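RETRY 2/3 - previous attempt timed out on the joint model. Re-submitting the same 1610-residue input unchanged.
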Amino acid sequence: MIVPCILLILGAILSLLIRNSKICNILINGISAISCLLIIVVGVGGILSRIVLSLPLGLEMGLDSLSSVFCVVLGIVGFSVSTYSIKYMEIYGRMRYYGVSYTSFILAMYLILIVRNAFWFIFFWELMTLSSYLLVVYEDEKEEVRRAGFKYFVMTHIGVACIIAAVLLLYQQTYLIGVPDMSFSSLSEASRSMPSSVLHLCYLLLLVGFLVKTGAVPLHSWLPDAHPAAPSNISALLSGFMIKTAVYAIIRMFFFVLPMEFWCGILLIASGLLSMFFGGIYALKQVDSKRLLAYSSVENMGYILLGIGAGLSLLATGNLILGSIALSAGILHTVNHAMFKALLFLSAGSVIYRTGKRNMDVLGGLGKYMGMTSSLALIGSLSASGVPVLNGFVSKWLIYSVTASSWKIPILPVCAAVAVMISAITGAFLLKYWSSIFTGRPSEEVKECPRLMIAGEAILAVFCFILGVYPMLALLPIVKVSEDLGIKASIIREQLFLGPFLIGPVTISTISLIAVFSFLSLFLLLTFVFLRPSGIKAEPWFCGTRPSALRFQASSYYRNLEEAMRPAYIKIPRITLRKYEEPDTDRFLVKPIVKAFGKISRAILAPAMGYVQLYLALMFLALLLIVGVIIWIS
Amino acid sequence: MDLIGGLINLFLVMLIAPVLDGFARKVRARIHCRIGPPILQTWYDIIKLFKKKDIDAEVSSRLYLISPYLSLAFSLVAALIIPIGCKKPPLGFTGDVLLLVYLLASSSLLVAFGSTASGNPFSGIGASRMLSLTVLGEGMLAGSIVTFSVIAGSLRIGSITELLSTSPRLAAAVALIPLAVFVYLESERVPFDIHEAEPEIVGILVEFSGRKLGLIKYSMMIRSTVLATLLIDLAVPWWLADSYMIPFYIISIILWLLLLLLLTLIFTIVDSSLARYRISMAIEGLVPFLCISFLSIVLAFLGV
Amino acid sequence: MNVDLAFLFRFLSSIMVITSVAIIELRDLRRSAYAYMLQSAILSADFSLIAMMTSEWHMYLWTVSSLVTKVLLVPKVLIWATEKTGERIEVKPVLPLTVSFGFEGAIIISLFLVAPFVFPSAESRFPSSIPISLVLFMIGIFGMLSRKCALKQVLCLCHMENGVHLFLASLAYRSPMTVEIGILTDAIAAVVILLYMAIQLKRVVGTLDTFKLSLLRW
Amino acid sequence: MIPILILLSPLAGSLISLVLGRRPREICCILSSFISLVLSTTALISVRAEPESFLSGEVILDGLGALVAFLISLIVFLASVYSPYYMNLDEKKHRTYYFLLQLFDFTMLSVCISNNIFLIWVFVEATTLSSVFLVALRGDPTSLEAGWKYVLLCTVGLSIALFGTVMLYVNALEKIGESGILWTELMRNKSVLDGRVLETAVIFLIAGYGVKAGLFPFHWWLPDAYSEAPTPVSSVLSGVLINCSFLAIARFYLLSPSGIVSSLLMFFGIISAIFGSIAMIRQVNMKRLLAYSSVENMGIACIGLGAGGIGIMFSIFHVFNHGLLKSAAFLSWGGVERSNKMGGVPPSVAFSLVLSFILLGGCPPAGIFLSELGILTSVVRDVSVAVLYLISTFVSFSVLSYSAMEKGLGKMLAEKSSFSAWIIPVISSTISIAAGLYPIPILHIIEEFLGGVG
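RETRY 2/3 succeeded.
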């Protein structure tokens, strides 16, 4: 459990010592990759048996199913990203800066998952925030990167402040019950005896704190800025895992530490609904590839929050089985999203690596030269849009099924309907992403990416595939999470509900569906491998126009749809697609506030005109007021 | 019995789908005061296309080659989930109806991806239009399906049809409207045939030829047949047999055929009497139905 | 004896009010400095009266030190500063003479009315010393507010400090020597530093008009 | 006799440095401030709950005084190490600078250990007088203007404090006797004093010393002086000068920590915090921005004082941390100014800048975060106050981190910078981080002090 930490710290120190940037690069990423492998081992160990470790200074660590599942995901994503980075980071300089922040980033994420003490949790949370901030502003010579970094920094710190406040409120209570301690177990004990108003305040603060990090609408606005600003391997980690630590934290806090509360679940559902809706329709509009993917992350966090929120509200109202299935669905989607979103970000990174461009309007036809990258990006896109036999489908389907059948909470079936619709939008914008970059007439001549980068992506693609066909690989450990909550996993498994995807009672349909899925995937593989072009090739038919004049730009893909959904893009008078105009809630939430503060600032500084007489007069006015108050009192 | 039922389902759908198309063509010709092609003409077309030499687009991805096959495969799996003749579908489990939605959507999504993979910008335009419509269509479909599941208290098509056949509800009737519109939309008829219209030069099929074209057309027909069956199942669930008892089963299959033909007739009449929309008009035209579908969920919860 | 001393004290204090108006309103800086000299002399006389009435011997010392610093040193330095800067007549003040008089009158009257409320328990053996010290203080402040000339502002500051010192002497006459020396030293040091800065201002900026000193804003 | 020795070292240093040459003078300054640092550290370690008194009670050494004295000597030491790097002066100004810097040090240290309420006033006034030429050292119009405003406003303001002191003394003279001039005696017998006069006097004292501390309606000199002073001087001014006046405010406030006084102090605190933080938004000059941040932080400290309870403890802790970080921010900004002249900011300087700014904004590991949190818990009962407080802290955090990122990032040079340009700010930031991570000893000292005074 400690070995990866030591290795990562060692990596950070080594990266400071080594001056040669090439060696440094290989070393950092190599060490990170190895420690990620170790993290996978730790996670698998944790799935098989519980591990608890107590270190001095209250540094308690533990691995239960929840932590283990997340550890494994971190390991997989981290390993493939590190592999990828060995080549990718060659185009960047400043290796020592990178090395320290990258290793500490992974370290912090790992430790967040395994610590069992609120103080250390916050400590590592902060470490994660800071190191990821450093990575986001890696290319700090660019104005927009600094802006994005600033926004990220401030928003996450407001979140951290909320978390700390909540933890302190809980900690105060531990004094009253006589165990002044910050470990999760005693906080949990304290929360049972808390006055309900304070407890509700805690819930609210924690929710805000964690939702900022997940990038849930309306607290998301840092996310689409920070992800494109960071180097792509970092975006892959940010989107692939960092925002999931908040999901982990939500599950840990709201399911395990604090008593489950119905309205928290409803709030989570609501924010999930908003995130998936706005994330989806904003992604539709993007022309910047990584920005599109970032909004897609917002959307997928919406699915995850919907699942978890449904789980929370169902469990809190006593629907144990449905609730635990919803929770499992949420976690499963977390796992799946980690895989395909990291894959997509890495593919966007490969394009940047070769062309240096993110604008999908000017990119095109790269599939001709970067065949493997194109195929891998395709797998990611299809998986994210939920095509069966790839992993995105399974979890989405589970989420729909469980929400659509939660008739006791009427909002949930509505959510399911919306979610299905948003899923179609996902398909739409990912089609835009993939086809505008990789298909069409090539915009420039490039080479295929280095093998290591492809390998990094391929690992994730393989997992997308495996988890799509045999989701029980992930679902079995995930169901154990509910077991930790005190719900018998066997009951859940017995529910035919999850039938096809769990090793439940073997029914004909179970077998046949698995058979069908296996058949489909086999079919896909076979066609992919053996289907050869007929040998006769023809120029695409351009309807008689000059081919060079034709290009279908990314910005015009869904113009009509966007026009139709104009009200959803909050008060944008006319959608201008040629520009990088942002349908951003910032404009309505943050900017007016900033403007207002600027105005107030101007107003209150108006007396400071430089005249010493004026200053004296103001001072004495204040003094006279005070004297007046004294006289009035007496 | 499930296995045999599944095979029967597949066989029926594969057989009937082109026939329905041929029937539609015949009806349309009659409305236009033409004699029209024979009913089996579509079958002949497909067979001819399969025999033809395949020409590939020059700059294309591998997906371009395989997407027709995959699309067909997904449509066929969808055919296993739909009850034909018997209330219990061959592949039934909780949530199967959502799988159906996904399979059909994926089938068309794959065609869209495949067509853009051909590298022709016109296919890109077609694909984007198709997906624009699909977004709204899926919303409508999802809304009505959730309504049915709320009414029936189950997410299995089998249970839903069973319940609807015993106790019809107003909400179900309301939910049928968007569902019908969706089925109409997916069968690529005027005014929603924007992405692949006969008089149109742009479209998703522009770069497909020969066997690939045949496969895609076939898969589209199967898809619309499956959807039409879903509509029939949910609208008039009484014709479905309770089990695979031979006499009832066969009777209900014949009924199914008749109902399909009736539906096709209605659709074709509507089709012939309408003019084509521009894409933006089509999208805006769908929005009210989306609202209706979400309204129907509310109605279902109100117990209407 | 005591009664006479008290009367004398009140009489002298009243003259101080008149001198204070003179200090503010005289446009010629040297005359204004002489008025200040007169006021400081009266202040020293007040100190000695306090010393007589309370028989605190160190008040005599205070008298002497204020004679040396306030009556001799400060006016001397002020006049030297006017010579050094070459500004005999102050920059035109913000307020015209009549308005200024009106304000001063208002300050005097209102403070005599208000003082008993603000310092109710500070009943003193020295009649009206508290209102008068407050008047000196406030008129000094008023001068600083309404005059532009840097040197005049320094004069107003000195004037204000006279008020503070009168207040101090009439209430805290029993405070130890160190305190009084410290306070006086600070006052004198502040005046000297300000004057030095005023000379610097004249040299660097070229004017004593403090309204020109508004480069630093916001 | 440690307190006297603490004082003697800078005084002697200032006098000696008048007669030395350039280099020896710098070394003399560093040495004298180092000695006083060592002495004040020992004083801080050896401080007891019961204050020790010397010279018949005129001089005391209690927790609060020792803490602020430690801070003063630390920051003056850092500034004097930093000065040779930053300052580039001709001989006359060089002499003036080092003479006055140590004299300034002396006066500030005197404030910390004085027990006589008049002497506190005298020394606070003396800090103004000794630092005014440091502010106006450049001698150009703007710096003279800043110096002029500084000395005029502070002198006038402090005369208000003198009024308050006299009232307090007269009251004490009646009720306690001659010894009522000593703060410790006042504290011991505060229940004997006439409550209303005491309140009035304390209000005057707060307003008067508030001028020096930079509370809102009295703060006008502060941005000018900070922005015009040479950066090491700004760091001392902002880091510890206002802490001296805060110390005076705290001492007198503790005489009457209730009723109208505390609500008035709270009111001052809130408007200063809000004003300071919002005024920061418009600043383009970093030093002015930091000056307004000082206004804000003094406001926060006053809110803590006014709130009472653990608020008092944390406000003293806040002042301590603020001093460390504000001086770090100024010194690192000085490094940036220097390197900007050469075309770009070296990474190490940028690092120190970003570090000190974001910590100053209240980023978690720093002690300032802890103190802000502590003060928040003490005001959380009053919702409107808590909301205003949170707004001001959020605004200042955003503005500070924004400006750190604007100024510190993006203009990197690969070159190495002078060592002292970044190590000095990093040292004081590190101390603040350490105080944030392990605040027990300092909080313990403050707690004992507060327990000692009741």
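Residues 57-85 of chain C form the longest helix (29 residues). Closing ticket.
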